[in-house]
């Protein structure tokens, strides 16, 4: 699996290419497609990676990474299907799209691996969940794990869980950004300048996330209780969060995102 083509060089596609280079891949092992000539020229100048058309990418690549928006998948598969060799590994980074969509449209026996990454890929801290299609084996999953480990952490899940993963970790960063935005606004309300409030909250978020990831007592309940003194400030704030149903609202939001992911997949049945 020496030659990798990324179809669609948006933020996720670019981040993957940059991560692969940083992990030691040679630029001549990589290529990408991009509809906008100005952006294509910019990426080639920055990374030294060749910009090609879809037909060239399909003919030359051992691994074809599909990183377009879900609504663009049908016309792309129209171009790919007549040219693709069944030995080529297809890696889908498109939210909501099942492996059976690719298997139905591509040559019989084509190995397909479905991936749900998230936007922290741009800083090398992605959480990517991968699932094998019916023709993909452990060797294909291992290739995808190696590729994606260059931009973060990778976990294998059954494809039946991918819509839930999309809602939880795929959309998850947006929920964190939303909460941080609200907390910064609260700081402004309390008289703290915006820049200072942002510094306070962002560093608190970084520290809290590091404690969750690296601490010996990483369960969030234990960590929260350690901050929550009897009759203190934290429990007063948590009482308000519970009063306003913040926990239930987050659960409902993630469930709604899961349902939307299911809808995206059904649109291509």
TrEMBL record:
Subcellular location field: Cytoplasm
UniProt cross-references to InterPro entries, sorted A to Z: 6-PGluconate_DH-like_C_sf (IPR008927), NAD(P)-bd_dom_sf (IPR036291), P5C_Rdtase_cat_N (IPR028939), P5CR-like_CS (IPR053790), P5CR_dimer (IPR029036), Pyrroline-COOH_reductase (IPR000304)
Chief location: cytoplasm
Matching Pfam families: F420_oxidored, P5CR_dimer
Domain Pyrroline-5-carboxylate reductase dimerisation positions: 159-264
Claim: Hydrolase is one of the keywords in the record: no
Keywords of the record: Amino-acid biosynthesis, Cytoplasm, NADP, Oxidoreductase, Proline biosynthesis
Catalytic activity: L-proline + NAD(+) = (S)-1-pyrroline-5-carboxylate + NADH + 2 H(+); L-proline + NADP(+) = (S)-1-pyrroline-5-carboxylate + NADPH + 2 H(+)
EC number, as in UniProt: 1.5.1.2
Domain Pyrroline-5-carboxylate reductase catalytic N-terminal intervals: 4-96
Class in the EC hierarchy, top level: oxidoreductase
The protein's annotated pathway: Amino-acid biosynthesis; L-proline biosynthesis; L-proline from L-glutamate 5-semialdehyde: step 1/1
Record PANTHER family: PYRROLINE-5-CARBOXYLATE REDUCTASE, PYRROLINE-5-CARBOXYLATE REDUCTASE 3
Membership in a protein family: Belongs to the pyrroline-5-carboxylate reductase family.
Function field: Catalyzes the reduction of 1-pyrroline-5-carboxylate (PCA) to L-proline.
Family annotation (NCBIfam families): proC
Protein name as annotated: Pyrroline-5-carboxylate reductase
Organism: Saccharopolyspora gregorii
């Amino acid at each position: 699996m020496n030659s990798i083509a990324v179809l669609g060089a948006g933020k996720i596609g670019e981040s993957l290419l940059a991560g692969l280079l940083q992990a030691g891949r040679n630029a001549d092992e990589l290529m990408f497609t991009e509809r906008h000539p100005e952006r294509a020229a910019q990426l080639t100048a920055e990374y030294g990676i060749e910009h090609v058309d879809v037909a060239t990418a399909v003919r030359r690549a051992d691994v074809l990474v599909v990183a377009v928006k879900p609504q663009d998948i049908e016309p792309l598969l129209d171009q790919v299907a007549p040219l693709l060799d069944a030995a080529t590994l297809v890696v889908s980074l498109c939210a909501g799209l099942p492996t059976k969509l690719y298997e139905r449209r591509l040559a019989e026996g084509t190995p397909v691996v479905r991936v749900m990454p998230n936007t922290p890929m741009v800083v090398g801290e992605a959480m990517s969940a991968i699932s094998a299609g019916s023709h993909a084996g452990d060797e294909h999953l291992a290739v995808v794990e190696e590729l994606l480990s260059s931009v973060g952490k990778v976990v294998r899940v059954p494809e039946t869980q991918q819509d839930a993963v999309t809602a939880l970790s795929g959309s998850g960063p947006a929920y964190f950004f939303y909460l941080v935005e609200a907390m910064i606004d609260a700081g402004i309300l309390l008289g703290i300048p915006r820049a200072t409030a942002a510094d306070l909250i962002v560093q608190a978020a970084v520290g809290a996330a590091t404690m969750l990831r690296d601490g010996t007592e990483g369960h969030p309940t234990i960590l929260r209780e350690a901050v929550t003194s009897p009759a203190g400030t934290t429990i007063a704030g948590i009482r308000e969060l519970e009063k306003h149903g913040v926990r239930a609202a987050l659960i409902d939001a993630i469930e709604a995102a899961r349902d939307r992911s299911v809808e995206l997949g059904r649109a291509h049945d």
